[in-house]
């Protein structure tokens, strides 16, 4: 895997470290919850968003310019909301799966690992985070 050295602000480093700490608290191990893996994940997400926006701008440019300007902010917010929702779902699902693997002998008798309960917990955590970020459901 290629290596790239990137300088970031102290504030961004603290934000990445808080994500790492949250993943560790949720049961992730050192190989999945570290600054390098979290930074790589955020870079990947950022590149996807950037490429999507570039593609969208290119498509809007070929449509005649001003046609999409009124909806572009709304579409961007909606896209970001969907993107964040899926990221959070994936993150919480991964955490729960890691917890299950760590307790494999106890999974069979644990009520909280039943599929319906797991699905409900993922949905609740996702909704809570979306409410914090966007202030809407």
What does this structure look like?
This protein has 137 residues and is an all-alpha fold. Helix 3 runs antiparallel to helix 5 (115-134). It contains 5 helices and no strands. The protein has one domain (10-134). The protein has helices spanning 10-25, 35-62, 69-102, 104-107, 115-134.
Strands, helices and their partners?
Blueprint: H1 10-25, H2 35-62, H3 69-102, H4 104-107, H5 115-134
Helix pairs in contact: 3-5
Characterize this entry briefly.
The protein is an all-alpha fold and 137 residues long.
Q: How large is the radius of gyration?
A: 19 Å
Number of domains: 1
Give the H and E element order: HHHHH
Work out the strand percent: under 5%
Mean pLDDT: 80
Principal-axis shape equals: globular
What structural class should be given to the helix and strand makeup?
mainly alpha
Main β-sheet: number of strands, strand sense, barrel status?
none
Query: Share of helix among residues?
Result: over 70%
Uncertain ranges: none
Q: Count of helices?
A: 5
End-to-end Cα distance: 39 Å
Instruction: Find the count of extended strands (DSSP E, 2+ residues).
Output: 0
Annotation keywords:
mainly alpha; 137 residues; 74% helix
């Amino acid at each position: 895997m290629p290596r790239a050295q990137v300088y970031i602000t102290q504030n961004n480093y603290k934000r990445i470290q808080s994500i790492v700490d949250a993943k560790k608290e949720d049961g992730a191990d050192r190989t999945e919850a570290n600054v390098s893996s979290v930074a790589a994940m955020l870079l990947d997400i950022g590149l996807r968003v950037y490429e999507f926006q570039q593609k969208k701008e290119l498509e809007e440019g070929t449509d005649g310019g001003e046609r999409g300007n009124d909806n572009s902010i709304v579409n961007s917010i909606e896209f970001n909301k969907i993107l964040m929702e899926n990221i959070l779902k994936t993150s919480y699902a991964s955490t729960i799966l890691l917890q299950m693997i760590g307790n494999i002998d106890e999974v069979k008798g644990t009520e909280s690992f039943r599929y319906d309960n797991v699905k409900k917990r993922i949905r609740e955590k996702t909704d809570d985070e979306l409410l914090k970020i966007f202030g809407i459901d």
